[in-house]
Design a protein that fits this description.
The structure holds two protein chains of two kinds. By secondary structure, chain A is mainly alpha-helical. Chain A is 75% helix and 0% strand. By secondary structure, chain B is α/β, with parallel strands linked by helices. The chains are: A mainly alpha, B alpha/beta.
Chain lengths: 338, 345
């Protein structure tokens, strides 16, 4: 166990060079896109030229690029992500992210629940009844899930379950505000303030986006679990388990499942990491003000500081979820020791 | 020795229905295992040794099926039992240990857990009792530091130790029959001796009958009371261990014994081999399946199938060279002339 803690600390230290690299690349990419944020503001003709000039000075856009970069880093290490130029000029970027992120987290929670609670059992059953009707239906379903564009599925769900059969609300807005707002995640805040209406509202409002977003991850996980389960079922130790007198179910759920979840954990972890980084299309279709939309909007408007901060944030989230996967690995597979 | 039959297999036919065709892996196997004996199954790869064992366990992998024949264990017809009834026999009455100890244990559970699981499956005990019993079992098997070993994972143990753990799992419920499928093939020679000694000791201490599958005639000579020689899904010869080495009757057994390299042979003499390869069992040779590789092959070998008959007291052979098969074949009009046009060398 001691080795595990040392490993986690080592991985956290490794975060620093990765983050610096991400920052540098994002910075270069952002500045190679034609146009700049002030031009965006000024181009609309709403600002007089003097004001534009003043803004350029304020944001340091007249400085050489590498100085801008180091200024940015200097601010970053003082915990200052800067202020937004475009979305809500002058707004503190930390505040913007802190407001947007809970919505993304909430969407991720629902999608992950669908992915894990449906994907793993579907994969297991599919492998258990290989080449049966159930298996074929699951496989075709998974193939459809992988091939379907998220935005299209989102719109279809809106039409079917929002318009034709108006069961779910079409858009995100309108969740009942809970009395206590600690996390910003409606579901959790709802439980904290024991506000039943918020909980139901949260489930209703996130149902369609979570299905649209979860369909892809769900299909990937199902396929992954199925194939690794089939592989494990061919292993010698499964035959040993049967020779011991284990029933079919004991063999599958006790001996095979944990082994087959080892590769599936990677996929699930990376999917959750990806979901936390913001699901731009889903957030756009369902008008959820999450982190994905925040950043794409910022990119459209060349809002350098906001893009940098957003990318930094996503990179860290992704690396951390990878780390969680690695730690889970050690728990699932005793052969892995750090 | 007692002569109580523990397991008797009659005319067992196990076929695999693959996409290329039906693989006739077992084509009428007859054998019996007596109480407290070690019986050896020997033959080349693909001769049907493992399939025989797996058929007894009713663990034949897909797409294999027992298409004909009977298996009686302590008078119970194993081939007719339901899957639930088999669950109570597997691991308790008949157990099996496998060739590759590296993969035969589940990597994510401790070995103590895996031994205890077997005890738990077949006895009405708590997990803790089962776990303590597994420590006791390891101590009985002379495994050093059993308290430490039970808490290890398979990857932390050596190959020989894992094979001993497999044996412990096999013995956890004191079965009447232990099937060991090439238990020492993956081990090096010194460990092999220790594991074989252990298996031998078990027969004496636990009164377990052991079916030992191997392709190593040295292991047979060392361990077994009786030997069954298999070729391409058939039993070609069945007798006690002394006779098989002193007076082998079937040409295949003779060829197998000639193929054993001896240290004292002249350096320049070449290694003796059996010409040809094990036949494809989708389209097996007609008549005696060994005839294409047999130096005594006659026309009758191609047309008629020899039966496993008791040519000498206690010595069963399936070959037309010997009187009983010869008589049977003559009555059916078999022609006893050498086969023409044979190119096997």
């Amino acid at each position: 166990m001691k080795g595990l803690y040392a490993y986690i600390i080592r991985r956290l230290i490794l975060l620093i060079p990765v983050v610096l690299g991400v920052m540098l690349i994002t910075f270069i990419l952002m500045h190679s896109i034609p146009g700049n944020p002030v031009a965006y503001l000024g181009g609309s003709g709403k600002l007089p030229p003097e004001a534009v000039e003043k803004l350029v000075k304020i944001y340091g856009l007249d400085q050489p690029l590498f100085i801008q970069f180091f200024l940015y880093l200097a601010n970053l290490f003082q915990g200052n992500l800067g202020t937004s130029i475009s979305v809500n000029p002058g707004a503190n970027i930390t505040d913007l992210i802190v407001t947007a992120f809970p919505h993304t987290v909430e969407l991720t929670i629902y999608s992950a629940i669908i992915m894990i609670l449906v994907g793993i059992p579907a994969g297991v059953i599919s492998a258990k009844k290989r080449n049966s009707l159930t298996d074929n239906v699951t496989r075709v379903g998974a193939l459809i899930g992988v091939s379907m564009p998220v935005f299209w599925l989102g719109i279809m769900l809106q039409i079917i379950f929002g318009v034709v059969f108006p069961i779910f609300p079409i858009l995100w807005a309108g969740i009942h505000e809970p009395a206590v707002k600690v996390t910003g995640i409606y579901l959790i805040d709802g439980f904290i303030s024991l506000d039943f209406r918020t909980i139901v509202d949260s489930i209703m409002h996130y149902a369609l986006p979570a299905i649209a977003l979860g369909a892809l991850s769900l299909s990937i996980v199902t396929r992954m679990v199925r194939s690794s389960m089939l592989e494990v079922l061919g292993e010698d130790y499964i035959r040993t388990a049967r020779a011991k007198g284990c029933s079919e179910n004991a063999t599958i759920y006790r001996h095979a499942l944990r082994n087959s979840l080892i590769p599936a954990t990677t996929v699930i972890g990376l999917q959750i990491g990806g979901l936390l980084g913001g699901a731009v299309l889903t957030e756009t279709v369902f008008a959820i003000p999450g982190i994905g939309r925040l950043i794409t909007d910022a990119i459209m408007r060349s809002d350098y500081p906001l893009v940098m901060a957003g990318v930094l944030f996503i990179a860290i989230i992704y690396i951390l979820s990878n780390l969680v996967v690695d730690v889970l690995y050690a728990y699932l597979d005793p052969r892995i020791r750090y | 020795m007692t002569v109580n039959v523990l397991l008797s297999i009659r005319n067992l036919k196990t076929h695999f229905f693959t996409e290329e065709g039906v693989v006739q892996a077992l084509d009428g196997v007859d054998l019996e295992v007596y109480e407290k004996e070690i019986i050896g199954l020997v033959g080349e790869t693909g001769s049907g040794k493992s399939v025989t064992a797996l058929s007894v366990m009713r663990l034949i992998p897909q797409p294999g099926f027992i298409v004909d024949g009977e298996i009686f264990f302590k008078g119970k017809p194993l081939h007719l039992l339901s899957e639930e009834q088999m669950l109570r026999i597997r691991g308790k009455e008949i157990t099996m240990i496998f060739q590759d100890p590296m993969n035969a244990l589940n990597p994510v559970f401790t070995v103590g857990n895996q031994i205890a699981e077997t005890i738990l499956l077949h006895n009405d005990v708590t997990y803790k009792e089962a776990f303590n019993q597994s420590i006791e079992l390891l101590r009985k098997l002379n495994i050093p530091k059993p308290e430490r070993i039970v808490n290890s994972y398979p990857h932390e143990l050596s190959g020989g130790m894992r094979q001993r753990i497999q044996i412990a799992i096999g013995l956890a419920c004191q079965p009447a029959l232990l099937i060991a499928d090439e238990p020492t093939t993956a081990l090096d020679a010194t460990i092999e001796v220790q594991v074989l000694e252990l298996i031998k000791k078990l027969r004496d201490e636990f009164n377990t009958s052991i079916m030992l599958i191997t392709h190593d005639l040295g292991v047979i000579a060392e361990m077994c009371d009786r030997v069954v020689v298999m070729y391409a899904g058939n039993i070609v010869e069945k007798t006690d261990v002394k006779t098989i080495f002193k007076q082998p009757l079937h040409p295949y057994t003779q060829a197998l014994l000639e193929a054993i390299p001896y240290a004292e042979k002249k350096k320049k003499s070449r290694l003796t081999t059996i010409p040809g390869t094990v036949p494809n069992l989708i389209n097996p040779p007609s008549g005696c399946r060994f005839h294409p590789r047999c130096k005594h092959a006659m026309k009758v070998c191609k047309t008629l199938k020899p039966m496993l008959l008791e040519e000498q007291p206690g010595h069963f052979v399936s070959c037309f060279l010997y009187s009983k098969n010869k008589e049977a074949a003559e009555s059916k009009g078999g022609v006893f002339e050498p086969l023409p046009d044979r190119i096997i060398y």
